[in-house]
């Protein structure tokens, strides 16, 4: 089980992002700004890998739903 930064937040060793950033889904940007030397590779390559799947699926015509619609199954 992974805890991520939760243990650091509970222990008080690292600050958590402001509430508005957490609610907006931008906590990753706050953490990247606080520790760029440690997190830049993870965010650059991890986000690119995550975005590649939906982009490829859209280029293929919508993925499984598009394939089922065109084959008539």
Describe the structure.
By secondary structure, the protein is mainly alpha-helical. 70% of the residues lie in helices and 0% in strands. The chain is built from 5 helices and no strands. It has helices at 6-11, 19-23, 27-34, 36-59, 64-71. α3 runs antiparallel to α4. It is elongated. It starts with 5 loop residues before the first helix and ends with a helix. The model has no long low-confidence stretch (mean pLDDT 77).
Characteristics:
single chain; 73 residues; mainly alpha; 5 helices
Which structural class should the secondary elements be placed in?
mainly alpha
Order of helices and strands: HHHHH
Main sheet overview: none
Average predicted confidence as pLDDT: 77
Distance between the termini: 39 Å
Low-confidence stretches: none
Helix content: 55-70%
Report the sheet-strand fraction.
under 5%
Number of helices: 5
Q: In one word, what is the shape? A: elongated
- The number of strands is 0
Q: Radius of gyration, Cα only, in angstroms? A: 18 Å
Summarize the structure.
With 73 residues, this protein is an all-alpha fold.
Write the layout of secondary structure elements.
Layout: H1 6-11, H2 19-23, H3 27-34, H4 36-59, H5 64-71
């Amino acid at each position: 089980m992974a805890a991520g930064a939760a243990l650091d937040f509970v222990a008080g060793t690292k600050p958590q992002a402001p509430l508005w950033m957490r609610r907006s889904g931008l906590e990753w940007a706050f953490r990247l700004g606080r520790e760029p030397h440690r997190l830049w590779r993870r965010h650059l390559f991890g986000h690119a890998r995550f975005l590649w799947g939906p982009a490829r699926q859209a280029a293929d015509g919508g993925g499984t739903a598009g394939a089922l619609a065109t084959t008539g199954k």
